[in-house]
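Input record (one chain):
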Amino acid sequence: MRAILFDGQLQFTNSAVLRDPRPGEIRVDVTCAGICETDLQLCRGYMGFRGILGHEFVGVARDGRYAGRRVVGEINCACDVCDYCRTGLKNHCPHRTVIGILNHDGAFAETVIVPEANLYPVPDHVTDDEAVFVEPVAAACRIGEQISLRSGPQVTVLGDGRLGNLCAQVLRHQGCRVRVVGKHEEKLSLLKTLGIATVLLKDLQPERCDTLVVDCTGSPSGLDTALQIVRPGGTVVLKTTVAAHQSLHMAPFVIDEISLIGSRCGPFDKAIELLAQGVVQVKPLIKARFPLEQATEAFEHAVRKDCLKVLFDFR
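The corresponding structure, as predicted from the sequence alone:
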């Protein structure tokens, strides 16, 4: 099987071995997969991952109730029997594997193994290019599950990359007054065309007026910037993981009573609905496509400052 492996070094192989599915698992033949920030951080040592990378994907179920249909899959594979799972915290199951991230081969391969319970069918009018974004759009939707947005708060999203763009679109749809802070005019211009306010980081004024700040920078400096603009009593949401060690002065959280919330995976059903309705525009984010054989070139392209989304196209 063709696949992209990471064993301390990124490499393509045409001889990867697909394990046999366990009870309740389904083989999904991948048609499209996307590189995300977590993949880049894994290649920098985050989580100590070894195996086949990739967790943003769309494919065709080979068997099970969705056999022959296009599907996407939640990435957390829970045990379903522990206290966490029984109380609705399956994404935090201590026994879970995570597709392409933790003890589970991922979707940068011709076929990926996924629990059938994790699969969602893709509506016919949603293209593969759109469906491959379900996982990050779901992550953006998670913020609204964790924090009440009923008052339409003033929100600043830090980071003009892939996830920052999607978070801004989702939060705007949920009634927030959104601006995005970034370093790249070209990336910010995509948001401007959607009617979302933007500001270059170098022009950002440290006025502490934001009820909510969402850090999508993937940088150790993101949280420091967030503390410069969140108002006392406000909330900072961390949406990206960073492989590098971070040190942080904690006094502002106490003095200004700032809430700090980690935010990870979100609802696939809501994400699919937003994409099906055309609420979230994702195709302008796609900047390059590569076959699996060009793994190195694809990852080199994905880290370029002017790049947003890179896809592996199996078609």
